[in-house]
Amino acid sequence: MYVFIEENMMRIHRHLRLFNFCCAVITILLFYMFSTDETLKQLKKTAGIFGNIASIMGGMALFYYVLREAFVKLKKRNIISNQIGGVIKNAIVILRVGHPVFGLLMLYFMVLHIALMILRGIDYNTSIFIFGMISAGVFVSMCFLGFSMKKQLLYRKYHRILAAFLVLSYWGHIFIKVNL
User: Fold this and answer.
1) Contacts of 35 (CB under 8 A, 6+ apart)
2) For residue 124, what pLDDT is reported?
3) Which residue among 78, 89, 110, 158 has the highest number of C-beta atoms inside a 10 angstrom radius?
4) 57 burial via Cβ count (<10 Å: 0-12, 13-18, 19+)
5) pLDDT tens, 9-66?
6) pLDDT band for position 5 (50/70/90)?
7) What is the pLDDT of residue 132?
8) How far apart are the C-alpha atoms of 35 and 29, rounded to whole Å?
9) What angle do CA 36, 40, 44 make, to 5 degrees?
10) Nearest-angstrom CA–CA distance, 156 and 32
């Protein structure tokens, strides 16, 4: 099972530009489809669903680093058995290959979320909007660093630091609800 998932993720990973193009086209089609027939209440609900999917994709991308760091620390302390270690290693390989795929999917679902919320007519004087735009800006910066990482390994450090800022700004977007 792991081999099947890994092979398919590697296939997508090898053709990341084509995947990116397909995601862009699908995003435009979804935006057109949902922006024409929805009432404002349905539009908010649909945009919220896209935002939730974006956060799930972000969680999957982040889970790779969390699982890998936890595995390394537990392995050093000899807490993990070889059998469980093998299962975790397979999961780490799949998540490593899937990390850029999850990141791209998060980007496009986030773009849909933002576009539909703006189309709906959101209130720009709220903490939800401000933290949401901060999250979007941090994530776009992370994407540029992620794509440039092969050329410059130093970017990995900044990519991880921005991931922490993204989590904090996302929590602000979700949990802090103040009108300014």
Assistant:
1) 43, 115, 116, 119
2) 82
3) 110
4) buried
5) 778 877 888 888 888 999 999 888 888 766 778 888 888 999 999 999 999 999 999 9
6) confident
7) 93
8) 10
9) 100
10) 36
Between CA 120 and CA 139 the distance in angstroms is 23
Give the distance from CA 80 to its chain's centroid.
29
**Backbone φ, ψ for residue 165 (5° rounding):** -65, -35
Q: What is the pTM of this model?
A: 0.86
Contact 19, 104 (CB under 8 A): yes
CB contact at 8 A, 145 and 158: yes
**One-character DSSP codes across 77-119:** TT-S-HHHHHHHHHHHHHHHHHHHHHHHHHHHHHHHHHHHHHH
pLDDT in tens, 53-68: 999 999 999 999 999 9
Enter the tokens of residue 139: 């994530």
For residue 46 the two structure tokens come to 């649909």
